[in-house]
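Collaborator request, handled under Task 6.
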Amino acid sequence: MLDIQTSAGAQARKPTITADYALAALRVGAIRTRLLVAEADTIGVALRDGWVSPEGAMLWARDCGVLDLVGDQDIKAGTSEDFADIEWMTA
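C-alpha cells returned to the collaborator:
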C-alpha cells in the first residue's frame, strides 16, 4: 500500500506507491467500469422493452453516473424534484 518512510527527527518524505497498491487501484477501476457498462445495458433493455420512459432512462443514467459518460446537459442540470412527475413505468 502507501509506504510513508520517516527517519528519526526528519520530516515525513513523500509517500511512495507500491506496485501492489497500483495494481489494486487498477482492479477497482476495471470493476467500476464493468458496473457502469452493466448499468447502461440494463437501462437500454428497460427502455427498449417499454419498462421506462425515455426521460426516466436519462434520469436513471444520471443517477448511476452513466450520463456523465454521455453528456446530456439538459438532464444533468435538472434536479430530482424537477422530474418528480415522470412516469417510470409505462402502462
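The cover message to the collaborator said: "The first strand starts at residue 2 and ends at 3. The mean pLDDT is 78. Please let us know whether this matches your experimental observations."
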